[in-house]
Design brief:
Bound molecules: N-oxalylglycine, manganese (II) ion
Distance between the termini: 57 Å
CATH topology: Double-stranded beta-helix
Structural class: alpha+beta
Helix content: 25-40%
Shape: globular
Order of helices and strands: EEHHEHEEHEEHHEHHEEEEHEEEE
Largest sheet: 8 strands, mixed
CATH class: Alpha Beta
Radius of gyration: 19 Å
Number of strands: 16
Mean pLDDT: 94
Number of helices: 9
């Protein structure tokens, strides 16, 4: 008989999806909900950008509990501080307030560029996949920055970029009414660094469909640089496109990736449930 029992520790089980982005986690639901893997999952998320939990099948309560094993739960603005999942769908019947705003999510973006401290991560669970399309694409803005030629890194170091939700409006509605544009502009406009120098020492690009103006550049140079950076960062080396099955959960590090929903039929019933982790680091 053993005189001392050693505490058993669940090892984190995982496999990488692509060299620069994406890892599949293979632990069971019970192991994940036990919570002791939380810190390791957080570390791997920062390292890999996107973590996929294939067909893990969390209920809403389980998703909320699991989210809390990773950090501080961030309530959605619309839920007034309540800890609940948020429905992500383009279907106006299901989500009257935000289906319009979610049209911007069809273009590469970072969540929360209107805040100085953006959310740390989002967790998205697939309740109903799309009938066609509807993958979620992810791009590592860490890997994309790291792979830039040194002259390019030097040329963009220190540049500042203005972001506004209104800029994303033009992606899906090129000729909005004046009233609608003013409504979007009232959401705000922020100035962020093009290269985010994280406390960890790593650097990532801050771009996406909310970026509209590079400070001190002419309009032509500004558009060219923003498109050049987005085109570079969303190339095949830095991206992963997740094809959803019911029950899948995907987490992305919102501080080192961009993401977008790929086109789908808004009326097809595609339904995702989202939770978020509070940001811990300002854009700097
Ligand atoms: C989001 C988002 C993409 C998708 O929830 O922030 O951009 O595929 N979702 O639904
Ligand atoms: Mn988003």
């Amino acid at each position: 008989m053993a005189i001392a029992m050693s505490r058993t520790e669940t090892p984190l089980a995982y496999e990488d999806i692509k060299p620069n982005i994406g890892t599949r986690i293979l632990n069971s639901k019970a192991e994940l909900l036990a919570g002791e893997l939380g810190p390791q999952i957080r570390e791997l998320l920062q390292d890999r950008g996107v973590l996929v939990f294939p067909k893990i099948g969390f209920t809403d309560e389980e998703q909320i509990a699991f989210t809390k094993t990773l950090g501080t739960f961030a309530a959605e603005m619309s839920s007034e501080g309540r800890e609940e999942v948020h429905k992500v769908t383009l279907d106006v019947k299901e989500n009257p307030q935000s289906a319009e705003y979610l049209k911007g999510s069809l273009y590469w973006h970072i969540d929360g560029t209107m805040n100085q401290v953006p959310i740390l991560a989002s967790l998205l669970s697939c309740k109903v996949p799309a009938t066609w399309g509807g993958n979620t694409g992810f791009a590592s803005t860490y890997a994309a920055y790291d792979a830039l030629p040194e002259e390019k890194k030097a040329a963009i170091d220190g540049l500042r970029v203005r972001h506004g939700a209104w800029a994303s409006l033009f992606f899906y509605e090129p000729e909005p009414s004046f009233a609608k544009l003013k409504g979007y502009q009232a959401i705000g406009d922020t100035e962020l660094p093009l290269v985010w120098k994280h406390a960890s020492g790593r650097k990532s690009l801050v771009i996406g469909c909310t970026a509209h103006t590079v400070l001190d550049y002419s309009p032509v140079e500004s558009a060219a640089l923003l498109v050049e950076m987005r085109d570079w960062a969303t190339g095949p080396a830095f991206t992963y496109s997740h094809e959803w099955s019911t029950g899948d959960l995907v987490i992305w590090d919102n501080t080192g990736t961009m993401h977008r929903a790929e086109a789908y039929d808004p009326a097809c019933g595609r339904m995702m449930h989202r939770t978020k982790l509070q940001g811990e680091e300002p854009f700097e």
